[in-house]
Every structure is written in C-alpha cells, then in structure tokens.
Specification:
Number of strands: 0
Shape: elongated
Distance between the termini: 32 Å
Structural class: mainly alpha
Radius of gyration: 18 Å
Strand content: under 5%
Oligomer: single chain
Number of helices: 5
Length: 152
C-alpha cells in the first residue's frame, strides 16, 4: 500500500496503487465542481442540495481514504492489510463514482483514475498472505474466492 504524497506514473488498477496524492487530486477535482454548482444554484434548490450532499460525501471519502492509506502502509498481518485494501478499493471506486459526471472534463485524469479491480487485488493479497505464512488469511481468501466464483 502506498501513502505517497505524489501521483505515480503507473495507472491505478488496484487498491495498492492508490496514493494519498491521487485521493487529494480526485477529491479536489470533484469539490471544485460542487463549489461551482453551489455558487450557481439558488438557495434551497434541489441542485444546490444535491451538490452539497455530494460535497459532503466526497469530503468523507477522501478523509477515510487518507486515513486508511496512512495505516495500510504499516507492516502487519496479511489479514489486516487485506481488510484495509478491500476498504480502500471500495472507497476509491465510490470516489470515482462521485466524479463520474465530469469524466469528459479536460482536467479529469482518464488515464490514471480507473476503477480498482477486486479479483486482481485478491490475487495480490493471496501472494502476500502466502509469503507471510498467514494461514488464517489464506483460508479466508480461499472462501472469498469461492463465493465470488460461485455466487449463491
């Protein structure tokens, strides 16, 4: 997991590639648009309320992602890193959803800001757990794989 203060040249494909700089840049991208919408909206309008709700959601997501990235860099058991990675994947994808209406904007980084892929992240977590010899995490990952491949 990265807690870098810069945006890496590699594309974001997995939660482990999301940096705090990515979170900040994407969050600010959306917040700039919501500020503009709030400024242009009449007081109490539906558009203004929606922009305010989105702004609050983005601020919460960026705060959560920043906090999770800070602790995910700590060496712990594969089990704890996996749990954090799944939260990072999920929160990152939600932040991308919030930015979706502006993907056509010239400052939206289409190349870098991509949805993370759960299955690939799980493979990386399995390798990490196997390397660490964490049997509990490996068993949990195996059960998770089965639930993904053969839904009930």
């Amino acid at each position: 997991m990265k807690n870098d203060d810069h945006i890496s040249p590699e594309l974001v494909r997995y939660g482990t590639q999301v940096t705090s700089a990515d979170v900040h840049a994407l969050g600010q991208f959306v917040l700039q648009r919501t500020r503009s919408a709030l400024k242009d909206a009449s007081a109490g309008s539906v558009a203004g309320q929606m922009a305010l709700g989105l702004q609050m959601t983005v601020k919460t997501l960026t705060g959560q992602l920043t906090a999770y990235l800070a602790v995910a860099a700590d060496p712990e058991s594969a089990w704890n890193r996996l749990a954090r990675m799944l939260v990072i994947d999920s929160a990152w994808n939600l932040l991308l959803d919030a930015a979706h209406p502006w993907t056509h904007h010239p400052t939206y980084d289409k190349e870098r800001w991509q949805r993370t892929k759960l299955k690939e992240s799980l493979v990386m977590a399995q390798i990490d757990a196997a390397t660490a010899g964490d049997k509990q995490a490996l068993e949990w990952l195996e059960a998770l794989w089965k639930s993904i491949e053969q839904p009930a």
